[in-house]
TrEMBL record:
<protein>
    <submittedName>
        <fullName>Uncharacterized protein</fullName>
    </submittedName>
</protein>
<feature type="compositionally biased region" description="Polar residues">
    <location>
        <begin position="79"/>
        <end position="89"/>
    </location>
</feature>
<dbReference type="InterPro" id="IPR036388">
    <property type="entry name" value="WH-like_DNA-bd_sf"/>
</dbReference>
<keyword id="KW-0614">Plasmid</keyword>
<feature type="region of interest" description="Disordered">
    <location>
        <begin position="59"/>
        <end position="100"/>
    </location>
</feature>
<dbReference type="InterPro" id="IPR013324">
    <property type="entry name" value="RNA_pol_sigma_r3/r4-like"/>
</dbReference>
Length: 100
């Protein structure tokens, strides 16, 4: 292994350590917000340098994402007697076309 490979390995390890530390920090922030007293968000912002909006994003991004209702199969409507009634239009002509 040459110097370049060693440096790239160290960089990759450092990036992974940074990501792990960030995930741990965010987990602690979420826990503090969920169970802390009033003013916790301001204390976290002061100690971490994060904005209050960034703290809200961290908490929001950890929330479970609800399933998209558009992707769900709709339940069939209950059968009603009105569906059995058919109207007989007979031999009526089509309605007249609108003229401009």
């Amino acid at each position: 292994m040459d110097d370049l490979d060693a440096a790239l390995t160290r960089l990759s390890d450092a990036q992974q350590a940074t990501q792990d530390a960030r995930q741990t920090l965010h987990a602690i922030i979420r826990q503090m917000i969920a169970h802390g007293p009033r003013g916790t968000q301001a204390e976290i912002a002061k100690r971490t340098g994060y904005t209050r909006e960034r703290i809200r994003q961290i908490v929001r991004d950890s929330a479970p994402v609800p399933e998209n209702p558009a992707k769900q199969t709709p339940e069939p409507l209950p059968h009603s007697q009105s569906e059995d009634i058919q109207t007989d239009t007979g031999d009526l002509p089509p309605p007249p076309m609108a003229t401009p």
